[in-house]
Structures are given as structure tokens and as C-alpha cells.
Amino acid sequence: MLNNKKIGMIGTGNMGNALIDGLIRSGAAQPENIICSDASERQLEPIKEKYQVATTTNNIEVVKAADIIIYAIKPQIMASVLKETADYLDMSKLIISIAAGVPLAAIESLLEKDLRLIRVMPNVAVAVREGATAIAAGGHADQDDVKLTMAIFDSVGKSIFIKENYLMDAITGLSGSGPAYIFMIVDALADAGVKVGLSRNDALVLASQTILGAAKLLLETGDHPGQLKDSVTSPGGTAIAGLHTLEKGGLRTTLINAVEAATNRSRELGDAMIKNFANGQTQP
Ligand SMILES: NC(=O)C1=CN([C@@H]2O[C@H](COP(=O)(O)OP(=O)(O)OC[C@H]3O[C@@H](n4cnc5c(N)ncnc54)[C@H](O)[C@@H]3O)[C@@H](O)[C@H]2O)C=CC1
Ligand SMILES: O=C(O)[C@@H]1CCC=N1
């Protein structure tokens, strides 16, 4: 699908780096077809060394050279980088933003021209090709653009297509931010293992593998999580004793509140962007 399309990555931090890694390791893109930019040479050097991709600190160079441009910079500087590169953006290029909370409408109001715009919410697991990604298309992006974007993010995990309006913030709160919740849970489970006598390393390996195994069971069987939970809880056994404690501690409510808080923060970021971008304000 990507064939020899040139992919430009603006921003090579957590996500930009993870995407480059996943694209190359999956074979979806060849190093010679990737050019990336970052404000920091320190960020670019290891990427150039590891992946032999073209690197530059000049974003405009990336936009000029690429057919598909992925903006992988912080939401707070999206406006200034979009403005910086705007003159070189046109309908010949597919523009993908992965910035949390930045609505397509904000980008369209800032750039004030017809562009093939796609908004994507991936997560950091793209680095190990197990990303969870949602894709929403702007007014001038067509089905081929969506297919191209899905080809990129399916090469580094699983992607779904959604209508952006009100769902992308929820996805940012759930799967975009979700790896952080799981890392915290694994860290706590490892502490628990240490508390009941395991070495830190054994506890961490066992806790991580338990999460991986549970996730694979869910995805490969398609069974409901409640059904799978019941398959673990022996009558009068250990799992139900642990689950009772989790219920008493309000685990479900806490997780629901966490996703809601992250979703609301994404909305706040978006509302601020729309206001600032509409006033042409590009500094955070
Ligand atoms: N970290 C995550 O798990 C996820 C992040 N995102 C989104 O991805 C975007 C990037 O996030 P991260 O990679 O975590 O941030 P990061 O801070 O790790 O990377 C951002 C990169 O942009 C570079 N940069 C700063 N100013 C620049 C400029 N003017 N031109 C070019 N590069 C510049 C920085 O040097 C840095 O390497 C954000 O919009 C975030 O909302 C989306 C999903 C998940
Ligand atoms: O925390 C953030 O804003 C970014 C977006 C989703 C995950 N990390």
C-alpha cells in the first residue's frame, strides 16, 4: 500500500521514534523512504544511526520531500510548526496529526486552505507493533487517504476508523493514555510480588507476562472479560479473595474516573487550541 511513498516525521520523541521503529521493523516502509526532523540534534542522532533514515532539524525540508507527513510534536507547539510549514502543504500531500486534543477543525482554521488532513490517536505500543490506534478523516481526505493511514498504523498494531467529532478525546483518554495506566498497575503488582516474598525481577516478569497473557486471551478468544475472569476464580479460592479486595478498593470506579479525567483533559486541550488557532495565536 505504501509502496515508495516518502514518509516525513516531524518530531522524533516517544511517538515519532516508536513509529519509525515500527514502520521499519514491520517492513511497511524502507529507511530510504523516511525523512524525519526534530528541533534537537540529540534526538535525531540515535535515530539516524539505528535506522539509517534521513534526518534534519529543518521541518520544511521534511514537508517538501514527503508525500505523507506525520506531525508527532506536542500539542502545545502544533500551531507554530503548522504555521512554519504551511506554505509547503497542499493537496498533493497527506497530512497526519497525532497530537492529543488537537481537533481537525483547529488545524483547518489555522491553515485556512483545503488539505488532506487525518487525525490519529495511536499509543506508545506502536514501538513493539502492538499499537491501538484510532483514525478520523478531515473534509478533504478521501477513502484512499484513510486506507493509507490505516496501512501505516496497522503495520504497528491495530487501527480503527471513527467519526472524529466527539470520540477522539475519549480514545485519547482510553487507549492513547491507557499504556500509562497499565504500567502503573504492573508496577503495583510487582511491588505486591515483592511484598509477598518474590525478587523484584521475578515479580516484574510475572506481572508483565500476566498482563500480556490476559490481553492475548481476550483478543484471541473474543470472550467477555467477565467470562474470562470467572474462569480464573475457583470457588473459595485465591483469585476471588483478591478480586473482593479490588472491589472494596474501588478499582473499577478509579479506572473509569481515570479515563474520564484524561478524556476531559483532551477536550480542554482541544478547546484551547480551537480558540488560539482561530485567533492565529500560535504560541502556547
Ligand atoms: N507519548 C504517548 O504515549 C503519545 C503521544 N501522543 C502525541 O504525540 C505527540 C508527541 O508526543 P511524544 O512523542 O510523547 O512527545 P515527545 O516530547 O517525546 O516528542 C516530541 C518531539 O518533538 C521535538 N520538537 C520540539 N519542538 C519541535 C519543533 N519545533 N520541530 C520539530 N520537532 C520539535 C522534541 O525535541 C521531541 O523530540 C504529542 O502531540 C502527543 O500528544 C499521542 C499518543 C500517545
Ligand atoms: O499524555 C499525553 O498527553 C499523551 C497523549 C496520549 C498519551 N500521551
TrEMBL record:
<comment type="function">
    <text>Catalyzes the reduction of 1-pyrroline-5-carboxylate (PCA) to L-proline.</text>
</comment>
<dbReference type="InterPro" id="IPR000304">
    <property type="entry name" value="Pyrroline-COOH_reductase"/>
</dbReference>
<feature type="domain" description="Pyrroline-5-carboxylate reductase catalytic N-terminal">
    <location>
        <begin position="6"/>
        <end position="101"/>
    </location>
</feature>
<dbReference type="GO" id="GO:0005737">
    <property type="term" value="C:cytoplasm"/>
</dbReference>
<keyword id="KW-0560">Oxidoreductase</keyword>
<feature type="domain" description="Pyrroline-5-carboxylate reductase dimerisation">
    <location>
        <begin position="167"/>
        <end position="269"/>
    </location>
</feature>
<keyword id="KW-0641">Proline biosynthesis</keyword>
<comment type="pathway">
    <text>Amino-acid biosynthesis; L-proline biosynthesis; L-proline from L-glutamate 5-semialdehyde: step 1/1.</text>
</comment>
<dbReference type="InterPro" id="IPR028939">
    <property type="entry name" value="P5C_Rdtase_cat_N"/>
</dbReference>
<dbReference type="InterPro" id="IPR008927">
    <property type="entry name" value="6-PGluconate_DH-like_C_sf"/>
</dbReference>
<dbReference type="GO" id="GO:0004735">
    <property type="term" value="F:pyrroline-5-carboxylate reductase activity"/>
</dbReference>
<dbReference type="InterPro" id="IPR029036">
    <property type="entry name" value="P5CR_dimer"/>
</dbReference>
<keyword id="KW-0028">Amino-acid biosynthesis</keyword>
<keyword id="KW-0963">Cytoplasm</keyword>
<dbReference type="GO" id="GO:0055129">
    <property type="term" value="P:L-proline biosynthetic process"/>
</dbReference>
<keyword id="KW-0521">NADP</keyword>
<protein>
    <recommendedName>
        <fullName>Pyrroline-5-carboxylate reductase</fullName>
        <ecNumber>1.5.1.2</ecNumber>
    </recommendedName>
</protein>
<dbReference type="Pfam" id="PF03807">
    <property type="entry name" value="F420_oxidored"/>
</dbReference>
<feature type="binding site">
    <location>
        <begin position="72"/>
        <end position="75"/>
    </location>
    <ligand>
        <name>NADP(+)</name>
    </ligand>
</feature>
<dbReference type="InterPro" id="IPR036291">
    <property type="entry name" value="NAD(P)-bd_dom_sf"/>
</dbReference>
<feature type="binding site">
    <location>
        <position position="59"/>
    </location>
    <ligand>
        <name>NADPH</name>
    </ligand>
</feature>
<feature type="binding site">
    <location>
        <begin position="10"/>
        <end position="15"/>
    </location>
    <ligand>
        <name>NADP(+)</name>
    </ligand>
</feature>
<dbReference type="Pfam" id="PF14748">
    <property type="entry name" value="P5CR_dimer"/>
</dbReference>
<comment type="similarity">
    <text>Belongs to the pyrroline-5-carboxylate reductase family.</text>
</comment>
